[in-house]
Amino acid sequence: xxxxxxxxxxxxxxxxxxxxxxxxxxxxxxxxxxxxxxxxxxxxxxxxxxxxxxxxxxxxxxxxxxxxxxxxxxxxxxxxxxxxxxxxxxxxxxxxxxxxxxxxxxxxxxxxxxxxxxxxxxxxxxxxxxxxxxxxxxxxxxxxxxxxxxxxxxxxxxxxxxxxxxxxxxxxxxxxxxxxxxxxxxxxxxxxxxxxxxxxxxxxxxxxxxxxxxxxxxxxxxxxxxxxxxxxxxxxxxxxxxxxxxxxxxxxxxxxxxxxxxxxxxxxxxxxxxxxxxxxxxxxxxxxxxxxxxxxxxxxxxxxxxxxxxxxxxxxxxxxxxxxxxxxxx
Length: 330
Description:
Blueprint: E1 7-11, H1 18-27, E2 31-36, E3 54-58, H2 64-71, E4 76-79, H3 92-110, E5 114-118, H4 130-145, E6 150-154, E7 157-158, H5 165-174, E8 177-181, E9 186-187, E10 190-191, H6 192-203, E11 210-214, E12 220-221, H7 222-232, E13 238-242, H8 244-260, H9 272-277, H10 291-294, H11 305-309, H12 319-329
Parallel strand pairs: 1-2, 1-4, 2-3, 4-5, 5-6, 6-11, 7-10, 8-13
Antiparallel strand pairs: 9-12
Helix pairs in contact: 1-6, 2-3, 3-4, 5-7
């Protein structure tokens, strides 16, 4: 009698990184359970596999019963859930610390053998920012229940759905000036599908337990990354470096506006916590385990950015054709 395919539960499996992991796990022949708060908005994951192979289900990582139901019968679990919200029910502590710990604790109780947890470079229980602190606390809680977990700490992640290059490319379309907070801060952007490859190795047992810091082949400052983006989207814009103390004041004012309006005003510009994060470089540590230990060759930005940032060019997909026509006429 043939054995049924193994099952992996991916919390946040419809998110930026989670969808790539879900697609790769489906290609491996696994059944994939995509655990999200709004499964009706995650229907797009179903075609990643054959009929019934990839299924979005309702799960709330703030609730034991909900998490336990999502983990029932699973052979492995991946946690991709993260947040940038400091307040509200799905805040840093509830999601990145307590939620991560809850998943690990209940996965152990379910008898699940493998767990992959997505964290971030800079995760530190004593970190200056709440984001870094809760990421560090989440890691500690995961390891307390699941010592053999594979923990992935990526730098800033880029790819078609990213909120980094796309965000500044959108800004370049409407503003002659791009403000930069921490223009000299270094990043090591990592391609989203490379992170997915690492997660899949963890699920399949091809990655030894431990913490891996993931960064691409290029280390550049924030300012240099914006220059790279502007070159790809064919736009010339001024860059204005904003001192940290001024950025902190403005961010605090925006955070206060969020509180005074009871959340009606969404601070999608910059928060005080993000300003704190930008004070530290976001690169792989000199002694950290990384892609080399996973036998993965990281993808360079040059190989990918053109494939999705072209839509931000003055003439979109026709920009190169238009430029060629101008050269002919001149």
